[in-house]
Amino acid sequence: MKKGAAERNFRKIKNQFTQIKEIAKHTKPGALWEHEAAVRKKLKAIREFEGQYLRDYDEVHENYMELLEDISKRLIDDYNKKNGTSFNFNHIVRENFEGYLKSGIMSVLITSYIPSIVSEEFDRVFPSNPKDEYKEARLIKRKFYLHLGETNTGKTYNAMERLKEASKGIYLSPLRILALENFERLNREGTKCNLVTGEEETIIEGANHTACTIEKLDVYESYDIAVIDEVQMIDDDQRGAAWTRAVLGLKCREIHICGALNAKELLLEIIEDCGDDYEIREYKRDIPLIVEERSFSYENVQEGDALVLFSKKRVLELAKYFLSIGIKASLIYGDLPPEVRRKQYDKFLSKENKVLISTDAIGMGVNLPIRRIIFMDVRKFDGNEIRYLTSQEVKQIAGRAGRKGIYNEGYVAAKDRVQDYLSENLITIDRPIDQGVLGPSDEILKITGLSLREKLALWSTREEKVHYYRKMDITEYLIVLDSLKGYMLEEKIQWRLLRIPFDVSNSSIMDTFLSFVDEIFIAKRDIISKPQCFIKELYDLEVYYQKINLYYSFSRAFNLEFDKDWVYDERLKVSEDINEILVGI
User: Fold this and answer.
1) Own/partner pairs for 505-514, CB < 8 Å, 24+ apart?
2) Residue 7 and residue 53: Cα distance in Å, rounded?
3) How many other C-beta atoms are found inside a 10 Å radius of the C-beta of residue 156?
4) N or C: which end of the chain has fewer CB within 10 A?
């Protein structure tokens, strides 16, 4: 990283210290896990600046270390009070300092003091090679077709054409809207297909195909042909485990994998280790990408432009600005319901809206008639720090420009004179993805002698014996389990609750989740209450939409009776309300 960029990023980490310290000071011990994890991430980021002779480096590093120690001691004290133990912080970290920085104090505590019999039980339950968890898949001689290459080159289209020829097939998507689009496409083109996501299930009579989000894959079902989309997500700390599970566990003789070329070597290692065959089909763009030399200015906006920013707030602000000068824009960002996203796409497609304003949500699976991608920034907040876009991210977003038959050249522009940065990253060879992420399987329930929380913490710290796998970040699991501490629920119930998708970081949605737990496991009701929304502001409607999805997912997870018609009707109403607000921006 260049000296100036390093200094700016380091300064931001330094300035965040007081805020993090103040929040942690007023947080109850049971909820301190998240803050400990955040401080450990900051320390990891700080250590990357070591040796760059930045002013105040030692002071900032020491401040964060002292804060981490303070939080960790509070966690240990809380554990001792609840369990009648007398563990000492200094004794725990003395021989396990690197493990402490990587995984946190409680993970080290459990790993260091757990009885050897439980450790042996882990070795018995979890095979040394993750592929061996999927015994039925190992009995099948599978063949993989790897469709790898640049964005907007027909990778998924070719795989889907082959899927249509199967007697029974499945399409595995990273996003609900992509599952929905391919569900509709297959049915429209004469191949009956079901839709299964965390938020809905549509069963078509006589259908043998399924389009679903990748987390909904049933590895116990057999298929003739499968398509796994956006395989580079296998590297994602939160969701990557779903891609690894699909590659290892699909019971299918013909599997098509679509995604970025930098996943190639990892996929070959996994496939060869499984003893399966493969063919590689690499894709190059027919349509050239041209980086414009002059910096973008607002008065130069043109029909077919897509302006990319990295926060919802800035998307809305820019849309208001353009509306004030008489230019209507379609808006795309992560919190947007799929129904609204489609309405926004349609307005851009019909040219009712001249331009598109989007976060990097545009980078995955969107094929729109975009003439020019304009980077309004080349930095993003990734949940931990503000950093520059990687070469793969630049290509993924920029590659949406140009569409054969509409725009036979794609243009890339930027604000604030960063064209050289874009040009360099468009030709840079992407960092190879060297590890697939693993998640804990149902097998963890077979381990005895520990709570589910302790088992997950232990699982997360155990080293993988196969070098091209690593463990997922289980912080969200631990936050949910901490929230459930007072309920005394059976372990199987806790495990099912962990698999319900919702935004753990949103306190309002977490409160709704816990209210559902109260109704079913404390009040012993047979149904849960429908969520409500009394404020029609944009943020409140987006949260309400997520609560409707949670109502659906929770009911399905525990086979509760629920009002399916209300779910679909209410989601549509909320989507229309959100769209109406966006149209008026």
Assistant:
1) 506/543, 506/546, 508/543, 508/547, 509/543, 509/546, 509/547, 509/550, 510/483, 512/547, 512/550, 513/480, 513/483, 513/550, 513/554, 514/483, 514/484
2) 10
3) 22
4) N
CA 244 – CA 470 distance, rounded (Å)? 10
- Residue listed under structure tokens 């689009």: 181
Looking at residue 5, its pLDDT comes to 67
Domain boundary residue, one of 427, 460, 486: 427
pLDDT at 24: 86
Boundary residue ending a domain (372, 405, 427): 427
Separation in Å, CA 311 to CA 316, 334, 361, 374, 395: 9, 9, 10, 15, 19
Query: How far is it, in rounded angstroms, from Cα 97 to Cα 63?
Result: 17
The whole-number pLDDT of residue 350 equals 93
What does 292-349 look like in DSSP terms, one character per residue?
Answer: -SSPP-GGG--TTEEEE-S-HHHHHHHHHHHHHTT--EEEE-TTS-HHHHHHHHHHHH
Q: Which portions of the chain are predicted below pLDDT 50?
A: 116
Domains: count for the chain: 4
For 412, counting Cβ atoms within 10 Å of its Cβ (0-12 exposed, 13-18 middle, 19+ buried), the class is buried
Q: Quick one: pLDDT at residue 111?
A: 67
Q: Do 224 and 93 fall into the same domain?
A: no
Q: 416 burial class (0-12, 13-18, 19+ CB within 10 angstroms)? A: exposed
Please give the Cα distance from 359 to 375 (Å, whole number).
10
Q: Is 306 left (phi over 0), alpha (psi -120 to 50) or beta?
A: beta
Q: What is the pLDDT of residue 264?
A: 98
pLDDT of residue 49: 78
Look at residue 258 in the predicted model and tell me its pLDDT: 97
CATH number of the domain within which 140 lies: 3.40.50.300
Q: What is the pLDDT of residue 28?
A: 84
CA distance 84 to 77: 10
First and final C-alpha spacing in the chain:
38
Same domain, yes or no: 227 and 311? no
Inter-axis angle of helices 475-483 and 507-517, to 10 degrees? 50
- Enter the pTM of the model: 0.80
Same domain for 202 and 87: no
Question: What is the structure's pLDDT at 225?
Answer: 98
| Matching residue, tokens 């002059």 | 294
Alpha-carbon torsion (254, 259, 261, 265), positive or negative? negative
Residue 225 identity (one-letter amino acid):
I
